[in-house]
Every structure is written in C-alpha cells, then in structure tokens.
C-alpha cells in the first residue's frame, strides 16, 4: 500500500514470484488480478488455508519455509540475468526512494532521523499502526534482523507499547524505542504502568497529529464529503497521563533545543514519553488508493511505458517476498 515506487514496478515485470511465508493481503498486492500478471507463482506457507486463498499459485507448497528452502536451493542453477538486472537498475533510477533527510525533530521524518541519531545500532524499534509506522519503515536505518517489531499485515493498533515492554524485559541491556501515534497509543496506554513498575528502558516517541492519520489521509484524498470521525484536536493531555503513570516526560515543542532535549531524555534510564505535535495534513507517499493496482500509486510520476517495453527481459528471475 505504501511500498517503494520502483519495487512495485519491478514486481509488475517479474516472471517468477517465490512467496515464502507471506500472505497475499490486499494491503500488499493491491488489485489481485493486476498483481504480478506475468509471473508464475510458487507459494510456500506452513498454513494450508493461506495457499490459494486470495491469489492462486501455480505451485503451492505447505511446509516450514526453512525446510522447504533447504530442499529447493540445491536445485537452483545460476543463470545470466543481465537484462533483468539492467531493468531493475533503470526502474530504481527512474523511481528513486526519495525520503527527505530532514534533521528538524519537530517534523515527522526529522524526528525519526533525530531519534536514530540518539541511539546505537543495538536499539530495538517498535511501532504501533498508522502513518508513523509507514514513516518509520521508510526512514529509520534498520540494520539487523529482529531490530524492528511491527504489526504489518494484521495492522493491530495498540501493538507498539506492549511489544516494547516485552522487548525490554527480554533485552534489559538494549535501548527500546516505541514510535506511536495518538490514536494507537490510547489502545493500550495502560501498559505505561507496566513499564514504570519494572523501570524498563522504553522510550515512547509520540507523533501526535490529533487525528487517526491514515483514516484522515484516505478521507481527505478520496472521500468527497470531507473528513469525519477522524480528528480530535486538543482533547488529550498525554504528558499528564504519562506523568500519572510515573513516566518521565518531554514535550519537544516546548524545548529551546529539541535535539539536545531528545538526546538527554533518551540517555536517561527508565521509561519516558517524548511528545511531538505533527501536522495532521502530512501524508504518507507513495500510496495505492483503495481497490487500485500497485502501479496506480498516488504521489508518483507516471510509469515510462516505453522504458518498460524496451527493457523487458527474457531471462528467468525470481522475486522473493519474505
């Protein structure tokens, strides 16, 4: 739904799609009949009910992904892929991943960059579900397996804080950063008490736009009657709530030097809430409109059809979703 532009166009040209333990969720594939129209599909999943449920594979394999790969990989022979690799390079060049390298911690991307600059590579990052989740996926420099805990296909609002609590209990020596939105945080806000009781080193980064961001975005872009039941300006004082649970608090909007204040509270042991107001009009791009194909992205220049036809490859390739 918010994937990289180049990736969506690359998938459109693949001739073989190997899907390992992933669901064909509409948030990932868009309009089913237009997803990877040229590809033969091999779907591996331990859950038989997922095989053929939404997208019919040419080969369906029920089993443990690790065991299946151990048998399949020795049978794969190397083949030249120069035309395919050239097509991939051209599409990546035409549709670059252009995430603003903002450093202002009072902006959405700037805040994510600023937080990343305050912690080392050992930090565990969790998110709730919403615009903040997509921005973190786009911008945070994730460099190791299991560093990022998020509810992707399920889209469970309220996931981030309990996940952060669990991560901190299991890894007391590592810093845990929980990015959340005001809507998601209120789903499980009581877990602040757990973090305080156990003095867990969990830092909640609250990106507060006083709205249900993704709902607001879809309504403002696609619903002609305007936005409704998606905003609640000035209704909740998260600073007082967090302090009541026993957390340290910091409102970056009220700090003379937001970056220094951010560094100071992240370095301080124990749980804390770091609050930043975000403009409710900020959007997540690119975006696939509801019911559209992945190539019909909003916030994206039109695909160069001549490029696609000219560089269409003939050698086999596999695109792996994991």
From TrEMBL:
Residue ranges annotated for the Thiamine pyrophosphate enzyme TPP-binding domain, each copy included: 128-276
Any Pfam family the entry gives: TPP_enzyme_M
Domain of life of the organism encoding this protein: Bacteria
Residue span(s) of domain Thiamine pyrophosphate enzyme central: 1-72
Annotated GO biological process: isoleucine biosynthetic process; L-valine biosynthetic process
EC number in record: 2.2.1.6
Entry-linked InterPro entries: AHAS_TPP, DHS-like_NAD/FAD-binding_dom, THDP-binding, Thiamin_PyroP_enz_cen_dom, TPP-bd_CS, TPP_enz, TPP_enzyme_TPP-bd
One GO cellular component, as annotated: acetolactate synthase complex
UniProt keyword annotations, A-Z: Thiamine pyrophosphate, Transferase
GO terms, molecular function: acetolactate synthase activity; flavin adenine dinucleotide binding; magnesium ion binding; thiamine pyrophosphate binding
Membership in a protein family: Belongs to the TPP enzyme family.
Name assigned to this protein: Acetolactate synthase large subunit
Species in which this protein is naturally found: Klebsiella michiganensis
């Amino acid at each position: 739904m918010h994937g990289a532009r180049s990736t969506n166009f690359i998938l459109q040209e693949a001739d073989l799609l190997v899907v390992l333990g992933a669901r064909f969720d509409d948030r990932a594939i868009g309009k089913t009949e237009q997803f990877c129209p040229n590809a033969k599909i091999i779907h591996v999943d331990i859950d038989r009910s997922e095989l053929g449920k939404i997208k019919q594979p040419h080969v369906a394999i029920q089993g443990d992904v690790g065991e299946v790969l151990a048998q399949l990989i020795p049978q794969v022979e190397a083949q030249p892929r120069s035309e395919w690799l050239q097509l991939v390079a051209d599409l990546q060049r035409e549709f670059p991943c252009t995430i603003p390298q903002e450093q202002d911690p009072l902006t959405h991307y700037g805040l994510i960059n600023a937080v990343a600059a305050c912690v080392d590579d050992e930090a565990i990052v969790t998110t709730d579900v919403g615009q903040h989740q997509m921005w973190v996926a786009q911008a945070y420099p994730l460099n190791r397996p299991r560093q990022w805990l998020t509810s992707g296909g399920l889209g469970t609002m309220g996931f981030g804080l309990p996940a952060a609590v669990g991560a901190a209990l299991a890894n007391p020596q590592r810093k845990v950063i929980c990015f959340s939105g005001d809507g998601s945080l209120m789903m499980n806000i009581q877990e602040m008490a757990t973090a305080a009781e156990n003095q867990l080193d969990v830092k909640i980064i609250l990106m507060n736009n006083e709205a249900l961001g993704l709902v607001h975005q879809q309504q403002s872009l696609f619903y002609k009657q305007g936005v409704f039941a998606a905003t609640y300006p000035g209704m909740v004082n998260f600073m007082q709530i967090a302090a009541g649970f026993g957390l340290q608090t910091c409102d970056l909007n009220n700090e003379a030097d937001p970056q220094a204040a951010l560094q100071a509270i992240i370095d301080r042991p124990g749980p804390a809430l770091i609050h930043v107001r975000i403009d409710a009009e900020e959007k997540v791009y690119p975006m696939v409109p509801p019911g559209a194909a992945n190539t019909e992205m909003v916030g994206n220049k039109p695909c160069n059809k001549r490029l696609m036809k000219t560089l269409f490859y003939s050698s086999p390739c596999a695109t792996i979703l994991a």
